[in-house]
Amino acid sequence: MDLVPALEEPLKQPLKSVLGPATAKVMAEHLGLHSVGDLLHHYPRRYEERGQLTHLADLPMDEHVTVVAQVADARLHTFASAKAPRGKGQRLEVTITDGSGRLQLVFFGHGVHKPHKELLPGTRAMFAGKVSVFNRRLQLAHPAYELLHGDSEETVETWAGALIPIYPATAKLESWKIGKAVQTVLPSAQEALDPLPDTLREGRGLLPLPEALLKIHRPHTKADIAGARDRLKWDEAFVLQVALARRRHADTQLPAVPRTPRPDGILAAFDDRLPFTLTEGQRKVSKEIFDDLATDHPMHRLLQGEVGSGKTMVALRAMLAVVDAGGQAAMLAPTEVLAQQHHRSITEMMGELAEGGMLGGAEHATKVVLLTGSMGAAARRRALLDLATGEAGLVIGTHALIEDKIQFHDLGLVVVDEQHRFGVEQRDALRGKGKQPPHLLVMTATPIPRTVAMTVFGDLETSVLDQLPAGRSPIASHVVPAADKPHFLARAWERVREEVTNGHQAYVVCPRIGDEEDDPKKAGRKKSAEDEAEKRPPLAVLDVAGQLNSGPLQGLRVEVLHGRMHPDDKDAVMRRFAAGETDVLVATTVIEVGVNVPNATAMVIMDADRFGVSQLHQLRGRVGRGAAPGLCLLVSEMPEASAARQRLNAVASTLDGFELSRIDLEQRREGDVLGQAQSGARSSLRVLAVIEDEEVIAEAREEAASLVAADPELERLPGLRTALAALLDEEREQYLEKG
């Protein structure tokens, strides 16, 4: 029988647990730590120096914290209460200090006896608990604590060295208990298999993995920590990039039909009828795409660019090139409104070239078919027939395109608009509809910093459109502090009226629809101004539209648009707005992507603090699409000093989406770059920070590419294979497979 390798040994076992069963259970349930290896890779968040106290002045509210401080004062009070009516209730109040501030600790009932004996003035200890406020003062109620006596053998043993590691902890398991558990398993670090090839590690002067693990958990100097972190960052970046490089390599082994446009085909005819010249950026990106389409393995390309940079034009030309080569192209849009909009704008741009099989259709014409879930049965049957026979060269639709019964004659290219709205399973299902894997072009209007693209979409080649076509107007953005300065909001509505008087139109965006039941449980007690703004339900389309109609925008033609309307009603509202029959459209974020009304010049975003940075940038891109300048007003009730207002100020201060996405990322963290959670809560990165560690990621990508080219199966690197297996659990493996 094989022995379980030391690092794979479970923390909790039926017969012999590495740790106490209760501790192992909490680690598994609350921290996701199941094996010795998991625990060794649970790195300290920061380190406390012996003799240097933490800053009590900077404690965050409602967070679980660990502080090192000295007892300044301890007082035992007795009081009467329902449980102790005869004045027998006891409360111990302990004040601790670190020179920067003071903090109150409070213990009640039977819990006062031990701390009353131990927490004497002058005692130094580590304290852990959740920061709360009582009588306007910060406090920790019933904190766990660990005394830091220099003479206690166990403490000297446990906290040997000048630096005390502070671990990411939970209310159920304090930092020092995790530290003691790590101490128990630390000898196993000697058996850690090193994922980095020796040549790479030695060439870059990185520590061996066992030494890095030892130094991250038990550093003697700050240099130990720096060396360990440098090494562990490389592990994360390199293993991740190897996973992505193997996918890229596997894709180059797949067969695909090369698709080359004809010099006298539909693409040439389309280019001839364009009323404008393509920007230099559009021409450059088109060439990259055409070169990919001409190869005999599938293209995997990410096309990112600012709102209005002309991505749809580039995608359409790629689709027409595939039609020229005898294939079909499908465009997948995230919403019906957007699919209809794409269908309308593409058929208008193509004119007679979109009338294949019809009287008056041009010589090279093809059919452009729309397929959505809400189509009538007859129209749907016609569309399905056109796809199966190859009569329709282009199809635009929602995820209705993915259904099993839909057959293509020869699917050559899939274009996915707004990639982040689609699950990988959906993309995969559509790609599976080709006789051979079709080429894939993914578009996004949310600019992604280069390193994020390399990390999250490392298996895709990236093209960037950063030039706006001629004729696009600048957009002025301003924050409207509705609570501090109500007259600013009144002025915002006056500006909307002025735009309408000048013959233009406006959007008003709200975070919710307003026909939901309000949850009575959420009607909480009153708190600070920031809490008040946070706790109030977000403003709703139906309410705001009613107030504007009878108030500041009385007499204007105001309509509403939201996701729960019938698709035909949504389409009718959008058509009226596009035709200029509506002055103001009060909508949810259904207008976020792709809606193109050049005459709309103003946008007021209510409760703007409820939206993410990228989303605000995306919304703002709906105005200033014509010759007249755009105006975007970000309305918020959040106090001036709040993080939410700082975020809004950042959006107002720049129109550079790449700069904004960096700000957004720094605030939200990376999310699980391999899993489907694209926000900060679940990050597969422990020490690597995507924005700060750009160089490491870029270098790791190069190293990974050359390694995989030489040894795709990693036969000579068992340590790397083990690390990949740990990184790619089943869910992530499928995610990468389907990409």
Describe this structure in words.
With 739 residues, the protein is of the alpha/beta class. It contains 25 helices and 21 strands. The longest helix is centred in the first third of the chain and has 32 residues, at 222-253. It is globular.
Number of helices: 25
- Please give the alpha-carbon distance between the first and last residues: 38 Å
Structural class: alpha/beta
Shape field = globular
**Helix proportion of residues, in percent?**
25-40%
Mean model confidence by pLDDT: 81
User: Beta-strand percentage?
Assistant: 15-25%
Number of strands: 21
Give a concise summary:
This protein has 739 residues and is α/β, with parallel strands linked by helices. The longest helix is centred in the N-terminal third of the chain and has 32 residues, at 222-253.
List the main descriptive attributes of the protein structure presented here.
seven-stranded parallel beta sheet, 739 residues, alpha/beta, six-stranded parallel beta sheet
List the helices and strands and how they pair.
Blueprint: H1 21-31, H2 36-40, E1 46-49, E2 64-79, E3 89-97, E4 102-108, H3 113-118, E5 124-134, E6 137-141, E7 144-147, H4 153-158, E8 163-166, H5 175-185, H6 198-203, H7 209-217, H8 222-253, H9 266-273, H10 280-293, E9 300-305, H11 311-324, E10 328-332, H12 336-350, E11 367-371, H13 377-389, E12 392-397, E13 411-417, H14 424-431, E14 439-444, H15 450-456, E15 461-465, E16 475-481, H16 486-501, E17 505-509, H17 529-535, H18 541-550, E18 558-561, H19 567-578, E19 584-587, E20 600-605, H20 613-620, E21 630-636, H21 643-653, H22 657-668, H23 694-710, H24 718-727, H25 730-738
Parallel strand pairs: 4-6, 9-14, 9-15, 10-12, 10-13, 11-12, 13-14, 16-21, 17-19, 17-20, 18-19, 20-21
Antiparallel strand pairs: 1-8, 2-3, 2-5, 3-4, 5-6, 5-7
Helix pairs in contact: 7-8, 8-23, 8-24, 9-11, 10-11, 15-23
